[in-house]
Design brief:
2 copies of one chain form a homodimer. Chain A is an all-alpha fold. Chain A is built from 10 helices and no strands. Helices cover 73% and strands 0% of the residues of chain A. The longest helix of chain A has 25 residues. At the A-B interface, helix 8, helix 9 and helix 10 of A face helix 8, helix 9 and helix 10 of B. The structure holds a DNA duplex (30 and 30 nucleotides).
Chain lengths: 199, 199
DNA sequence: TCACCGATTGACTGGTCAATCAACCGGAGG
DNA sequence: CCTCCGGTTGATTGACCAGTCAATCGGTGA
């Protein structure tokens, strides 16, 4: 083989970081915590990453690019805005279902941390808002949604609702066990879309 | 006079802290920054507060209790859920209009910082969600809103939308200059309430 | 067998602050 | 004029931790 299995120590570190960040929060995790969790020497973290920040950035970028792709795809698919927004919300909720720790980290440490990491990734984050706004705008153009609401405004409200629900699950404000994510998705999409229907 | 004007150095420090927190974020402001901004000696901050954290806690508590009172009052007032929710959103948007720095600090450093200060104040924050949920529940009971949506669910979606809009203004994702806050309030309430109307 | 080289290790350094504390100031009261 | 005392000052301390770096390991090819 060209390269012996690079042991994927890099991946090992990233995965460990997710767990530690989710447990303690980015700011109160020491680099040594990540190394310990990964079962790896302190210095190795700096072999694969230039800084503690870069670890988080990498985690965010990996996941967020998937979200952007999902929004694009939902937009390209057939169906009205209701179906498209359902796909977007579904993707986000599924992401949480699939890897709660990762979503917790991304939301808490980046998306909602507008003063620190959110600042750095503002452009990427905004791209998601704009993708959703595009879906709304098309819905308005086709007459499926009323036209007197600014699409970006609607997008922010929609995304804000999604993220707040997620936060509620993450921090136990809302019981997650009994909640069926798919049901929540449908309810949310229905409510918002009904509110955006032509009067 | 019993007490000479205690010079209100405490207030001076709190107000200075708002400005500095808003400008630099809680984590990257040193206690010396607060003291400098207030034109006061470093040590005096510790005369009035036990820690840097306590300064932020005080700011949050002061403001949040007003919000809780406003929610209570909106609920007690006459009118349907539409009017009541309009009052709640109006209070929050007005708070931002009146003191953007303070709202920025509260939202960024507490409300959306669920890993650090949000944790400590989770109970207070939840109380706001519950107040809003109560308004929704009453609306359902009176038949003004459809009954198949969990009130807490609707509350989280509503509050999430409000906060996301605020965040958009705070961080320039959405242009604030041209936006009339009252218009935004009406639009938001209309959309959500239309979505929650009986089908 | 040996030289090479990237992966891996972890002790150490430098800088940053939060919090402390001993000293100082000025007004009230005697 | 002196004492007392709470408000005020800012230099100092002690802890913490990100990032560095020189040393070691182990696989590969000659």
């Amino acid at each position: 083989m060209a390269q012996a299995p690079p042991a994927d120590k890099r991946r090992l570190i990233l995965d460990a970081a997710v767990r530690v960040f989710a447990r303690q929060g980015f700011h109160s995790t020491r680099v040594s915590d990540i190394a310990d969790e990964a079962g790896v020497a302190y210095g190795l973290v700096y072999h694969y990453f230039n800084s503690k920040d870069e670890v988080l950035n990498e985690l965010f970028t990996e996941r967020w690019s998937l979200l952007l792709a999902a929004i694009e795809e939902a937009d390209r698919a057939d169906g009205g805005p209701r179906e498209k927004l359902g796909k977007v919300a579904g993707f986000i909720f599924d992401s949480y279902r699939h890897d709660p720790d990762l979503m917790k980290v991304i939301i808490v440490e980046v998306t909602r941390a507008a003063n620190s990491f959110g600042q750095i990734h503002l452009e990427q984050i905004r791209r998601a808002y704009e993708g959703i706004a595009r879906i709304v705008a098309e819905g308005q153009a086709s007459g499926a949604l009323r036209g007197d609401v600014d699409p970006m405004f609607a997008s922010m409200a929609f995304y804000g609702a999604v993220e707040q629900l997620l936060s509620g699950w993450i921090f136990g404000t809302i019981p997650a066990s009994e909640t069926d994510f798919d049901e929540a998705r449908d309810l949310l999409v229905t409510t918002i879309c009904d509110g955006l229907e032509p009067r």
